[in-house]
Amino acid sequence: MRLDPKTFWAMTPLELAIACGLHGEAPAGGAPDRNALLALMRSYPDRERGSDPAGGGPRGGG
Question: Is 16 exposed, middle or buried (0-12, 13-18, 19+ CB in 10 A)?
Answer without folding.
Answer: middle
